[in-house]
Write a structure and sequence with these properties.
This protein is an all-alpha fold. A two-stranded parallel ribbon has the order 1-2. The chain starts with a helix and ends with a helix.
């Protein structure tokens, strides 16, 4: 108790942990009727994992399911020894590349099938709390605005991922840990966290490239040398997956990217064509906030270039992906809010003050509440 009374970071972390516990029980009891598999949005279109009992599984009828279903299937059998596991994956070549989240769930639960779903939900819960703590440490080193770590609770992507049990929160934790390690001039830790982030979600490679460019720009030669080591485990794993599944389905991201700005144009046109419902209003609201986050980070970088070089560089990398994203990613708020969740964290960590820095994060809190109460 004495530590909590003395440390603002510990206080904020405790508050975030309490909110996460409350949200967990709200979803677990009221949304999923006490069935932990509800967190994985399992549909009835694809074959069910052979390790799941249909009678004990929370299944959404006449739905394809969501990514959490795929991660859970892999976590039950991370070495894919059961042929039924591969049959349960929509695109094995794509899904198996993102190995670290399901493997960590398997490892922490010691392979216990009953514990694995709880463990995977627990990993995401822990990531929200750990991200808030890391953000507090980062902000303390930078400009002392530690209270802003509480804004993690406002970020819609946190609750989307938490309720869907995808890998994005774990990937975000590793990214923020790498940013903090870079700031502390710890190249080995920076490289390790980036490698784990890439094994969790391979699109983080574009962030790795931003680290390369910024390290070169800042003449951080020691960090630059270590960063190339990220490619060893990432390329090694992806090569193994490609060799194993080269004849079993296509790469799942082939339609995720398109010509520059085409997906954004299609998205905006869709706003005028769709009927205005609660879901479409939330869609417009979240898309606008995401764009505002990009603008706010770049504005902060313009005002304080020396403090925000790496944050702006990583945001620029995500901005390139955003401009190239097809309507497959941008078409639904669950997808673009999850894929570009890191942009919210980057804004939280930026040095900017005032409405332009805080408003998008504060406004996103309304969307988080709407999602949890209405849409989840």
């Amino acid at each position: 108790m004495k530590i909590l009374s003395r440390s603002p970071i510990a206080k904020n972390t405790a508050i975030v942990a309490l909110v996460v516990v409350i949200v967990f029980f709200f979803l677990y009891i009221f949304k999923y009727s006490g069935n932990i598999t509800g967190f994985f949005r399992i549909g009835d279109v694809l074959p069910l994992s052979p390790f799941l009992n249909p009678q004990e599984t929370f299944i959404y009828s006449e739905q394809l399911g969501y990514d959490g279903q795929q991660f859970l299937s892999i976590a039950f059998d991370p070495f894919l020894q059961h042929e039924g596991t591969i049959a349960a994956l929509d695109h094995p070549l794509y899904r198996y590349r993102r190995i670290f989240y399901p493997f960590l769930g398997y490892l922490l639960s010691l392979g216990n099938v009953r514990l694995i779903p709880y463990t995977m939900v627990g990993i995401n819960a822990g990531c929200i709390v750990a991200i808030a703590s890391l953000c507090g440490l980062y902000l303390k080193e930078k400009n002392g605005t530690i209270w802003r770590s509480l804004l993690v609770l406002c970020i819609p992507g946190c609750w989307l991922v938490f309720s869907l049990s995808t890998s994005d929160l774990l990937s975000s934790f590793f990214l923020i840990a790498s940013l903090y390690s870079y700031q502390k001039n710890k190249p080995i830790l920076t490289t390790t966290f980036l490698a784990l982030a890439c094994l969790t979600r391979e699109t983080v490679l574009v962030v790795w490239f931003a680290f390369i460019l910024v390290s070169y720009w800042q003449k951080n030669w020691k960090q630059l040398r270590y960063l190339f080591a990220v490619l060893l485990p990432v390329f090694g794993w992806n090569l193994y997956v490609f060799i194993r599944f080269k004849n079993r389905g296509i790469l799942g991201t082939t339609t995720n990217f398109d010509y520059p700005f085409l997906g954004i144009f299609d998205k905006i046109v869709g706003f005028f064509q769709n009927e205005f419902t609660t879901s479409t209003i939330l869609e417009i609201y979240l898309f606008g906030i995401l764009v505002a986050c990009f603008i706010s980070i770049f504005w902060s970088g313009y005002r304080q270039p020396q403090q925000s070089t790496l944050l702006v560089g990583v945001t620029f990398a995500y901005g390139l992906l955003f401009c190239l994203s097809s309507i497959t990613i941008l078409g639904y708020y669950l997808d673009f809010s999850r894929v570009y969740m890191d942009v919210y964290f980057l804004l939280l960590l930026s040095a900017g003050e005032g409405a332009i820095a805080i408003a998008p994060l504060a406004a996103s809190g309304l969307a988080s509440i709407a999602f949890l109460l209405i849409q989840s």
